[in-house]
Amino acid sequence: MSRIFSGIQPSGELHIGNYLGAIKNWVALQQQHTGAIFCVVDYHAITGNYDPAVLRQRRWDMARSLFAAGLDPERASVFVQSDVPEHTELSWIFTTFTPLGDLERQTQFKDKSGTMESIPAGLLMYPVLQAADILLYRADAVPVGEDQVQHLELSRDIARKWNARFGEDFFPEPKPLLTPTRRILGLDGKAKMSKSLGNTIGLLESDEEIWQKLRPAVTDPNRVRKTDPGNPEVCNIFQLHKAFSPAETVADVDTQCRSAGWGCIDCKKVLHANMVAELTPIRTRAQQLAEEPARVLDALASGASTARGIAQETMREVKTRMGLDPVRQG
Ligand code: TYM
Q1: Which of ligand 1's atoms lies nearest the C-alpha of 193?
Q2: Domains: count for the chain
Q3: pLDDT exceeds cutoff 90 at 175
């Protein structure tokens, strides 16, 4: 049976891109497989300048949002990366045989480092730590959005190289589990929805805040007047309907858009209603968890304890095979 692992950075609020690309799938997968492992990857969030107080707050907010979105500590282990030090230990080992060129080729590295005057080495090593996150649990299935596919390719290369040197088939080659909503665009309808681009809708935003963002969101650029027929295939709002609205509504939107029956605002109002229907229970649970923080903290502690058990076992085996086990007389 496959082992599922995935991670998310506590780099800001959980937004509907993360939710549709990954978290909703985590929640679905935990029903099918007990023992899935999900991690708030705080070591990944310190590769740029940051404020410790803000990071502390964001880790808490992210953990609370994940449970509010439906992760169940009875079915899955959820924990914070820096609570399990084996992540960085395995990461160092992996850096010793990851070619520099492979790291320099990573699209996310090129995008992020492009404008930097001084590039932290941690930014370059980021995908090695990601490989360690996954392989520490010998996970072979990783539910992620499309932007992580290249990093997973590198994780597979690392697993293959390590296995070739130290032990056939010890590490599985982890594969991405993608959803139909693997790449959610931001409200500009152009770039990936991402906190750093300021084009997100937060999972815990109020009905009014969501509407204020949806109202001006970009639609089919060729549909200038309400009477112009639109093309749903190029409209980001239609893509969001596919994610939030029932199939009959999606079919209706398609017809109404192509025939100019509905204007874009009418279409957005229907989307807004369906988004609110899905997100309100999440917001309510997040509020309840804010009032009972011990439920979140206990769940994280228990998740970290399970994770640590698996991680220590993997490291024992890795170190033994690499000649790094406890020193004895030679
Ligand atoms: P992060 O924190 O940027 O995103 C978390 C998850 O959300 C997905 N995602 C999206 N999916 C669709 N459309 C979008 N606009 C969108 N934005 C984000 C991401 O693909 C991801 O699945 N490097 C990872 C974190 C990480 C990790 C790991 C993931 C560290 N170690 C091990 C898996 C396994 C990242 O920065 O994700």
Answers
A1: 15
A2: 2
A3: yes
pTM of the model: 0.97
Q: Which pLDDT score is estimated for 2?
A: 87
Ligand 1, atom 36: nearest CA belongs to which residue? 9
Q: Find the CATH number of the domain harbouring 265.
A: 1.10.240.10
Residues 6+ positions from 126 with CB-CB distance below 8 Å: 44, 47, 106, 108, 109
For residue range 227-273, what is the model confidence (pLDDT) as tens digits? Answer: 999 999 999 999 999 999 999 999 999 999 999 999 999 999 999 99
Pocket probe for ligand 1: among 3, 5, 8, the residue whose CB has the most ligand atoms within 8 Å is 8
The confidence score (pLDDT) of residue 290 equals 97
| Residues 118 and 37 occupy one common structural domain | yes
213 given a catalytic annotation: no
Substitution site in 144, 151, 196 for ligand 1 pocket (most atoms within 8 Å of beta carbon): 144
Full residue range of the structural domain in which residue 304 is found: 5-184+293-322
Q: 242 is written with which tokens? A: 């596919």
> Quick check: is 192 catalytic?
yes
List the alpha helices (DSSP H) in the chain: 16-18, 24-32, 52-68, 86-95, 100-104, 107-113, 121-135, 149-166, 207-214, 236-244, 247-258, 264-291, 293-321
State how far the alpha carbon of 94 is from the alpha carbons of 48, 109, 126, in Å: 22, 18, 11
Residue 45, in any domain of the structure: yes
Please give the distance, rounded to the nearest whole angstrom, from the Cα atom of residue 230 to the centre of ligand 1: 32
Compute φ and ψ for 26, nearest 5 degrees: -60, -45
Cα–Cα distance, 81 to 68 (Å, whole number): 19
Average pLDDT over residues 167-175: 94
Q: Which atom of ligand 1 is nearest to the CA of 148?
A: 20
On whether residue 195 sits in a domain, the answer given is no
Contact call for residues 36 and 29 (beta carbons, < 8 A): yes
**What are the pocket residues of ligand 1 if the criterion is a CB atom closer than 6 Å to any ligand atom?**
6-9, 17-18, 21-22, 41, 44, 130, 133-134, 142, 144-145, 147-148, 151, 182-184, 192-194
